[in-house]
């Protein structure tokens, strides 16, 4: 007699993928807060902090993007909505890269667009993290 294995629980992220994805949020948050501090105090070091935090967040987001690309080729991950997650994470990385290029300018030339980009990238990172960690509801009898 054959046994049918019923998957009652949703497929979640690979743990290493989850670490890289979750690491992007505090780094982009730190960059946004550094930009806010720079906007209030005009101490150039805050702009340097933001640049380094954005660079670190882009490294982590790039690795998470590779994991998300691999998940696109897995049918059970595609079923949980990994296409939308990949698109949002890709948009986060692209706008984060533009933000890094903007922060490479002279410190006085960074504001106010640098702060606006940091806020948008942080919100996209939060959305990508939420989409990555969400688990769709499993229908059927318990």
From TrEMBL:
Transmembrane region(s): 12-29, 49-70, 82-102, 108-133
Domain DUF2231: start-end pairs: 15-133
Alphabetically ordered keywords of this record: Membrane, Transmembrane, Transmembrane helix
Presence of keyword tRNA-binding: no
Organism superkingdom: Bacteria
Keyword Transmembrane helix on entry: yes
Any Pfam family: DUF2231
Identification of the protein by name: Putative membrane protein
Phylogenetic placement of the source organism: Bacteria, Pseudomonadati, Pseudomonadota, Betaproteobacteria, Burkholderiales
């Amino acid at each position: 007699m054959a046994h049918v294995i019923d998957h009652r629980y949703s497929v979640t992220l690979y743990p290493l993928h989850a670490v890289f994805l979750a690491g992007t949020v505090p780094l982009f948050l730190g960059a946004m807060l550094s930009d806010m501090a720079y906007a209030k105090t005009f101490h150039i070091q805050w702009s340097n902090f933001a640049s380094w935090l954005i660079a670190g967040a882009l490294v982590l987001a790039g690795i998470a993007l590779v994991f998300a690309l691999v998940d696109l080729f897995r049918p059970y991950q595609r079923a949980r909505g990994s296409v939308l997650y990949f698109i949002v994470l890709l948009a986060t990385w692209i706008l984060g890269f533009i933000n890094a290029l903007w922060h490479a300018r002279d410190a006085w030339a960074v504001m106010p667009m640098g702060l606006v980009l940091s806020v948008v990238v942080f919100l996209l990172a939060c959305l990508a993290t939420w989409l990555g960690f969400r688990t769709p509801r499993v229908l059927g009898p318990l």
